[in-house]
Design a protein that fits this description.
By secondary structure, this protein is α+β, with helices and mostly antiparallel strands. Helix content is about 65%, strand content about 10%.
């Protein structure tokens, strides 16, 4: 019997079987590789999602921290505003009380101002008659201002005190000025140079220096002085105008009266 063909067939069968097994194994390896590649892609996508979520989470965390800082700043700011509001409420209460007190004071100060005006008006009427028209006009203006709504009570009071200060200054000053006075008590006024030494003496001298006189408080009129006063009064006028240095002057001064 010839056994060679049988051996050939057996080898072919084995070879075919080996090829089949190799093909199957190759297919399985491909499947495994393909599955591995898909897993890698899925892992990449998952990692991308994880990174994106991490970034979003980090962004939200930073935003949360920023919002917390803003909230803390707002708390501090609100606390400060509350203290300011409390202070303003206290100021409003104090202002309200001050306004109420001011109303009461204003009602009481009006009679006081009128009394002060009447007092200074009477004083000017009884005082030596220097710049009388100007001083009386100042008092008249004050009476007008008292009835005016244009000035506050404080401003009216300031104006009255200003007149009092001016009148007080007259007692300590020396001045000379031109004026028209009735030196002869006949109703005719003559232009003269007036010399005022405080409220102690009030004198005049005509422009040609031919006549010199003084105000007599007792008679309430002008009286002519002797020629011995012509030079002293002229000297006093020059001193008042700062044309001569200060010096001792001999003036007709009424002796002080004993207090009653």
């Amino acid at each position: 019997m010839n056994k060679q063909p049988l051996k050939a067939l057996a080898f072919a069968a084995v070879l075919a079987s080996g090829l089949t097994v190799g093909a199957v194994q190759a297919s399985q390896v491909n499947d495994v590789l393909k599955a591995g590649a898909e897993k890698v892609q899925i892992a990449k996508k998952s990692q991308t999602n994880v990174d994106r979520i991490a970034d979003q989470t980090d962004g939200l965390l930073q935003e949360f921290k920023q919002v917390n800082k803003q909230i803390e700043s707002l708390r501090v700011y609100n606390s400060q505003l509350e203290r300011q509001i409390d202070s303003q409420k206290q100021m409003m209460a104090e202002l309200k009380e001050s306004i109420e007190n001011a109303t009461i004071i204003e009602r009481g100060i009006a009679p006081l101002m009128l009394s002060m005006l009447k007092g200074i008006e009477d004083f000017i009427a009884l005082d030596v008659p220097f710049k009388k028209d100007m001083r009386e006009e100042a008092i008249a203006n004050l009476y007008v201002n008292m009835d005016s709504a244009k000035f506050s009570a404080a401003e009216k009071f300031r104006q009255i005190l200003e007149v009092y200060d001016i009148e007080a200054e007259y007692s300590q000053s020396l001045e000379s000025y031109r004026d028209l006075i009735d030196i002869n008590s006949d109703g005719s006024e003559v232009e003269v140079e007036v010399l005022r030494i405080g409220r102690v003496a009030l004198m005049y001298q005509t422009k040609d220096k031919s006549q010199t006189g003084a105000w007599n408080k007792e008679t309430g009129s002008w009286e002519t002085l002797g020629s011995e006063y012509r030079r002293p009064v002229d000297q006093g006028i020059r001193i008042a105008k700062k044309l001569s240095p200060q010096d001792v002057m001999e003036m007709p001064i009424t002796a002080p009266e004993t207090a009653q």
